[in-house]
Structure formats: structure tokens, C-alpha cells
Amino acid sequence: QVQVVESGGGLVQPGGSLRLSCAASGSIFSINTMGWYRQAPGKQRELVAAITSGGSTNYADSVKGRFTISRDNAKNTVYLQMNTLKPEDTAVYYCNVEFDYSGSYSMKVVDYWGQGTQVTVSS
């Protein structure tokens, strides 16, 4: 049973910080890219940050310089350190994990989504 569970969301004042965690568990062979997405009311889901198995990162322009994505492969966990939070960052944050079940003669890559964790930035 594959599980992707986010944690760390909550209410924070503008300028504050939060650290989100996403732990993957289950029948894991290997994990490729891990990423964070967010969706605010009335808006489409957007990529916040992503990190490949090799450590390459990608950030949305709106969070560059404020957010940092990292991963702990031993724990199958990805983190999102969010600093200098703004009200515009308010959204449900979703973790996406790309599982690789590929073998010598087959290719199978499946991505899973977490349930989401609410981040609210308000005074």
C-alpha cells in the first residue's frame, strides 16, 4: 500500500516560516522526482518546487529566494522550507512523488499525490 503523507501546515503570520514534510511509504523500488504543488481557492494547481533524484531543483518564480526544497532519501521524505511567507502563499500544498518500478525489461513510472496540507498566512 503506497502512501504519501504531508505534514507541517498551519497558520502563520506574514513574514513567518513553516517547514512542510512529505513522507512516502509502501512498495517503493525507487523514487525519481519529488515535488510540491499548491492550489489556492479559485486558482489552478501550480508547481511550487521540485527536486530530482540527482538533486536538481526547480522553483516557481514567485517563491524563488524564499522557499527551499530538499530531500532525505534514506527516509523517503521531501521537505519544503518556507520563509518570509506572504498572504499570497495561502493554499493547500500537495506533495507529489514519482515512483519508479522499472526493471531490466520494462518501464513503469507512477506518480502519487498526498492528501494535502493547509497553509494559511494571515495576520
Helix and strand arrangement:
Blueprint: E1 3-7, E2 10-12, E3 18-25, E4 30-39, E5 46-51, E6 57-59, E7 67-72, E8 77-82, E9 91-100, E10 109-113, E11 117-121
Parallel strand pairs: 2-11
Antiparallel strand pairs: 1-3, 3-8, 4-5, 4-9, 5-6, 7-8, 9-10, 9-11
Task: Provide an overview of this structure.
The chain is 0% helix and 54% strand. The chain has strands spanning 3-7, 10-12, 18-25, 30-39, 46-51, 57-59, 67-72, 77-82, 91-100, 109-113, 117-121. Strands 2, 4, 5, 6, 9, 10 and 11 form a seven-stranded mixed β-sheet that branches. A four-stranded antiparallel β-sheet has the order 1-3-8-7, with no helix packed on it. It is elongated and about 55 Å long.
Shape: elongated
The major β-sheet equals:
7 strands, mixed
Strand residue percentage: over 45%
**Coarse structural class:** mainly beta
Q: What Rg, in angstroms, do the CA atoms define?
A: 15 Å
The CA-CA distance between the termini, in Å, is: 40 Å
Order of helices and strands: EEEEEEEEEEE
Helix content: under 10%
| Total of helices | 0
Report the uncertain regions.
Answer: none
How many β-strands, per DSSP?
A: 11
